[in-house]
Specification:
By secondary structure, the chain is mainly alpha-helical. It is built from six helices and no strands. Helix 1 runs antiparallel to helix 2.
């Protein structure tokens, strides 16, 4: 075999051994990657049979890095999907087991600190809004409010007078 002008014989031999080792490694591949391994094995046999340049090796390495990264991300996605399905199944089973009253209690119990913060935030703002609306109502309708207060005072006095008469 002739060597290219920019690759020495020792580098050429190490490239051939690496090519042969990669070919053997690929033949030991798992069944999940069998189709991809077989096409890559054929490509490596073709590369080993002809003169291999550094650019070819770099391209092949980059392609394998891409394939491995793609498989890793696909595996992570599958694992996330499986965990999600398991979690949804657990939640569904827990929801079926709970009684109605326990469900109401759990609805009011916050699942995490952020939900507790949200509940407190909502309650504080509802209290503030009711206070502001009541002050606004008293300021704009003070005569009506005065009449209502006088009415309840007179009603209480009349009930007390009636109760005294009844028990005496």
């Amino acid at each position: 075999m002739t060597t290219s002008s920019f690759i020495s014989d020792s580098k050429r031999e190490s490239l051939d051994t690496k090519c042969h080792m990669a070919h053997l490694d690929m033949k030991e591949g798992t069944s999940a990657f069998q189709s991809e391994v077989s096409t890559s094995a054929e490509e490596l046999e073709q590369l080993c049979g002809k003169e291999v340049t550094a650019a070819d090796i770099e391209l092949e390495r980059m392609r394998w890095d891409f394939v491995l990264a793609k498989l890793k991300y696909e595996h992570e996605d599958n694992e996330k999907q499986r965990l999600h399905e398991e979690r949804m199944q657990q939640i569904h089973q827990q929801a079926v087991k709970r009684s109605f009253s326990q469900g109401l209690q759990d609805l009011l119990r916050p699942p995490n600190p952020y939900a507790l913060f949200l509940y407190c935030f909502i309650v504080i703002h509802v209290i503030y809004t009711v206070k502001e609306l009541s002050f606004y109502f008293f300021q704009t309708h003070y005569l009506f409010c005065f009449a209502v207060v006088v009415f309840y005072i007179l009603k209480k006095i009349f009930q007390d007078y009636k109760n005294k008469k009844k028990y005496s």
